[in-house]
Amino acid sequence: MSATSLESVGREQLEEARRSSNGRASRTLHHGHRLHQTLLALTAGTRLAEHQSPGDATVQCLSGHVVLNAGAESVAVPAGGLVHVPARRHDLVARED
């Protein structure tokens, strides 16, 4: 058992995303039988393409600002925000690093 600093990992991944040609970087924090947690860093303007989640999911924005789009619905998620991801196709767009 060990603790992980989300702020530290988030800073590292954001720096990697800024160096990346596709504007993103990710690191799996936990991959269990029923729970999978990934820290994803996106630079402003980067879009995570439309996809379907395999199960229950949330998006927690640690810094910056993202928008979750699902069909005709969109929700802005500012730093510190948390949103449940609907069980349908969706995408994610970073508005701010």
Helix content: 10-25%
Poorly predicted residue ranges: none
Calculate the terminal CA-CA distance, rounded to whole Å: 31 Å
Strand order of the largest sheet: 3-8-5-6
How many strands? 8
Percentage of residues in DSSP E strands:
over 45%
Give an account of the 3D structure:
The chain is globular. The chain has about 100 residues and is mainly β. Strands 3-8-5-6 form a four-stranded antiparallel β-sheet, with no helix packed on it. The chain has a two-stranded antiparallel ribbon with strand order 1-2. It has one helix at about 5-20; strands at about 25-30, 35-40, 45-50, 60, 65-70, 75-80, 80-85, 90-95. The protein is built from one helix and eight strands; from the N terminus they run αββββββββ. About 10% of the residues are buried.
Question: Nutshell version of this structure?
Answer:
The protein is mostly beta strands.
Write the layout of secondary structure elements.
Elements (H helix, E strand, L loop, with lengths): L5 H14 L4 E8 L4 E7 L4 E5 L6 E3 L4 E6 L2 E6 L3 E3 L5 E7 L1
Antiparallel strand pairs: 1-2, 3-8, 4-7, 5-6, 5-8
Descriptive tags:
single chain; 97 residues; mainly beta; four-stranded antiparallel β-sheet; two-stranded antiparallel sheet; 8 strands; 14% helix; 46% strand; globular
